[in-house]
Amino acid sequence: xxxxxxxxxxxxAGASLAAELAPHARVLLxxxxxxxxxxxxxxxxxxxxxxxxxxxxVPLTLASGGYLDDHGFLTPRGALFIGRAGDRAAMDAxxxxxxxxxxxxxxxxxxxxxxxxxHIRPEWSEALHQPACADIxxxxxxxxxxGAARRHGVTTACRARVSGLVRxxxxxxxxxxRGEAWRAATIxxxxxxxxxxxxxxxxxxxxxxxxxxxxxxxxxxxxxxxADLPLVxxxxxxxxxxxxxxxxxxSPHDEIPSDPCxxxxxxxxxxxxxxxxxxxxxxxxxxxxxxxxxxxxxxxxRLPVYGxxxxxxxxxxxxxxxxxxxxxxxxxxxxxxxxxxxxxRDAMTARIDPAMFSPQRFQPARxxxxx
Length: 371
Ligand SMILES: Cc1cc2nc3c(=O)[nH]c(=O)nc-3n(C[C@H](O)[C@H](O)[C@H](O)COP(=O)(O)OP(=O)(O)OC[C@H]3O[C@@H](n4cnc5c(N)ncnc54)[C@H](O)[C@@H]3O)c2cc1C
What we know:
- This protein has 371 residues and is of the alpha+beta class.
- 24% of the residues lie in helices and 30% in strands.
- It is globular.
- Flavin-adenine dinucleotide (FAD) is lined by residues 8-14, 30-33, 38-41, 43-47, 161-162, 190-194, 198, 214, 216, 294-296, 321-327.
């Protein structure tokens, strides 16, 4: 049997695209690990924040918000970008950057900031409130897509690390390290940090998608962090923190270049996070209970890459989801399916310009393709 589409990688990207394609095509989902979700998808900070990723990503985030909300995957939290007196220009620049994008932002007074963030040090006087920010039920969303794909007949092969990709006779032969083999007319490269590796296996020119390590530490603070604390982000990108089940999730907002791998946290990055946190609040840190790291993978212009390769027949990129691959998943998957199937855009994707995300911005175009 020749599948219409074989998707390599069953993280949020591959799972959501499989679910969108499944009613229209015979889809195979291939995952290297024992179960989907082990890499970036299982390690996120689980927020939907309208400005995250910059103005180019806003249309994908906003277009995904309705789907996430309608299916019960969002819990309101609100976000606060904070700074000191010297950061007013950065605050103004943030407002100006997102003016006209549909993002809602309100300036807060120092007193309003202190009311929202107990224990904040008084020099942190600047704040922008983004009330729409929400927590995402990441595992629920991932399972929702895997379940929808399964119900529409998608087969998921786990423990199947793709090691060979050969195009012959109008189809790809896909082989794995353990010797499985399948054929598919089109392959989708949704391998997260490994997308350039997959391209190399297929003999396709890599785009230069770089994995960057990001660390999260789970702190027990005294007194306990309130459940309604917003997501608090440094306007200069030095940290963020948010509450979860009585603990605080804290990140130093690190971006350390890495090979694709099973990322692990470095003690230095945890120490940097704590040092920055202590400059912001006088909360007592009682314990660092847990820590993890994951890879966020970026194209050279930090926008995602969705579309057929310009020079390799039947090779579709679904890559470069950076730090926004969960919050953009519904609209990205819908758009990806529309591009693969040659369908027009619908109400969810109408405001998204696919050309912004085409791999052909890195490659001269040759021909149009669909499944
Ligand atoms: C610390 C951290 C915080 C984050 N916070 C947020 C957030 O708050 N909001 C948000 O929207 N995003 C966030 N992100 C980003 C988000 O997690 C990613 O954008 C998203 O998970 C990427 O999904 P993916 O499916 O592309 O990658 P992955 O989940 O990594 O999936 C790729 C899959 O491909 C598989 N694979 C690789 N090579 C092969 C092969 N040869 N054969 C078969 N399978 C293969 C891998 O095993 C993996 O399961 C965060 C990321 C990190 C690390």
